[in-house]
Amino acid sequence: MAETSLIIYKVFLCFFFGFVVLIQSAPQTALITKIPGIAETLPSKHYSGYVTIDQSHGKNLFYYFVESERNSTKDPVVLWLNGGPGCSSFDGFVYEHGPFNFEAAKTNGSLPQLHLNPYSWSKVSNIIYLDSPAGVGFSYSSNRTDYKTGDLKTASDTHTFLLKWFELYPEFLPNPFFIAGESYAGIYVPTLANEVVKGIDAGIKPILNFKGYMVGNGVSDDKFDGNALVPFAHGMGLISDELFEEVNSECKGNYYNPPLTDPCQSKLGKVDEDLEGLNIYDILEPCYHSPEIREVTTASIKLPSSFRRLGETERPLAVRKRMFGRAWPLRAPVRHGIVPTWPQLANSNSVPCTDDEVATSWLNDQAVRKAIHAEEESVVGSWDLCTDQITYYHDAGSMIPYHKNLTSRGYRALIYSGDHDMCVPYTGSQAWTRSIGYKIVDEWRAWISNGQVAGYTQGYENNLTFLTIKGAGHTVPEYKPKEALDFYSRFLAGEPI
Ligand SMILES: *[C@@H]1O[C@H](CO)[C@@H](O)[C@H](O)[C@H]1NC(C)=O
Ligand SMILES: *[C@@H]1O[C@H](CO)[C@@H](O)[C@H](O)[C@H]1NC(C)=O
Ligand SMILES: *[C@@H]1O[C@H](CO)[C@@H](O)[C@H](O)[C@H]1NC(C)=O
Ligand SMILES: *[C@@H]1O[C@H](CO)[C@@H](O)[C@H](O)[C@H]1NC(C)=O
Ligand SMILES: *[C@@H]1O[C@H](CO)[C@@H](O)[C@H](O)[C@H]1NC(C)=O
């Protein structure tokens, strides 16, 4: 049942017994008491359930809330959003920075083993994983017309969710509040931040203590993102100097909307040919295409070990060789209008470059769904990492004006990029952050984690920071969990990274 209707029910009961009790804290019905797959006691409280954002439509968004393992009273609250459009934020929970490391089941039909994640973002923050928009992950609507949506509607729905969520958890209202996300959430985050700020300006209650936001390998602007690939491919040594010079002069440096001339198109075709077969989420990782073998042993990977190590972590589950976020074929950046989801693009349910087995088996297990208060399959269907049941419009345009607006009003922004991602390459994010024209206050320098260079950063006025994570792919904390927790903690604390 939706949390809000539960609360109404409780208040009603209170009236019935002749007294009014104001519900002042986290709803106890949302508390998770036992999680299949882990024997240890949880290091902090976990809550999950639905918030009804449109009663008449029966539109319900699912969240999973992890309290901070440090000091939940004082630590910030962060909303986490994965992209797609159409991908569940359990991607972040299972594969990136959630409280558990998942170890694949050893035998068929059994559940993955869960271990505590020493680099969970809940070490330093309270974090809400939200499935959005309705139709994604465990979120759903009883009125299917809601599955046709876009940027602006999603932002206003998520704002409604936040207002209702904080009504359910009012003790977290004083904590600093941040919004974070990755990939297509490069659109979700600034558009939602804009709604939040508008709400604060208009005095809409509850007043959110909004401080800033983070975007990782985020879609931002069709022109900058569309022009990012060719320079990336050249800088990474994937295309020759000659081809780089030729494609540049034939297409006049315009890859976002290239001239339809034969020479430009044929040079671009050559670029595609050179990049074909690479894993676009991390060019150092192997990639397999259906119907070939799904997994190989490390021994058969041909990368030199020094390169291989870039993708290795201390986790029991290796980084995914296959996955999908909002990915699009090379040279097809997100543009105004309909944005096909991956399953729609691939025109099939077997999407190339996906590995969602651990999450899929865990989140479709009946005991797990019951434990985390997810609706039954008869109501919400099976859980998919990325769904094709939504029709999604990119209708918010470029994010650059949003970033300008938010940062000039004092909200802090961290724009970070795994520097080996070819899906939303760092070259685009670096170029658009620079294009805003803010004064550089912290000139390009290495940033350090664990005594090592972990990447590079450039700081601009108005607390706009661009950051790379060396050797990381599209989903940064999946590849570099320790370094990710480091920059995340420093950013939230308002410290230099
Ligand atoms: C947590 O932070 C609050 C607010 O700063 C403080 O009053 C409280 O003592 C802290 N709790 C612990 C266990 O440190
Ligand atoms: C596990 O089950 C799947 C589907 O039922 C089957 O294709 C696969 O071969 C099984 N794997 C093992 C190791 O038994
Ligand atoms: C679903 O929503 C649409 C748009 O608000 C409305 O016109 C329609 O009547 C609704 N359908 C049902 C079954 O409630
Ligand atoms: C900035 O955003 C606010 C709402 O948050 C809006 O009222 C204002 O018009 C925007 N300013 C610009 C220059 O876009
Ligand atoms: C930047 O952020 C810090 C830490 O929150 C804050 O003290 C400072 O006022 C901010 N600067 C600007 C220009 O907004």
Describe this structure in words.
The chain is α/β, with parallel strands linked by helices and 497 residues long. The chain has a domain at 3-221 and 395-493: Alpha/Beta hydrolase fold, catalytic domain (Rossmann fold). Helices cover 31% and strands 18% of the residues. It contains 17 helices and 16 strands. The chain has helices spanning 3-16, 90-96, 151-168, 185-201, 222-226, 229-235, 241-250, 262-275, 305-308, 342-346, 357-363, 366-371, 377-380, 400-408, 426-435, 476-479, 481-493, and strands at residues 46-54, 59-66, 77-81, 100-103, 113-116, 126-130, 140-141, 148-150, 177-182, 210-216, 337-338, 391-394, 412-418, 440-449, 452-460, 464-469. Helix 3 (151-168) crosses helix 4 and helix 7 packs antiparallel against helix 8 (262-275). The longest helix has 18 residues, at 151-168. The protein binds 2-acetamido-2-deoxy-beta-D-glucopyranose (5 copies). One 2-acetamido-2-deoxy-beta-D-glucopyranose (NAG) binds next to loops. One 2-acetamido-2-deoxy-beta-D-glucopyranose (NAG) binds at residues 57, 143, 145. InterPro entries: Peptidase_S10, Ser_caboxypep_his_AS, Ser_caboxypep_ser_AS. Probable carboxypeptidase. GO terms for molecular function: acyltransferase activity, transferring groups other than amino-acyl groups; serine-type carboxypeptidase activity.
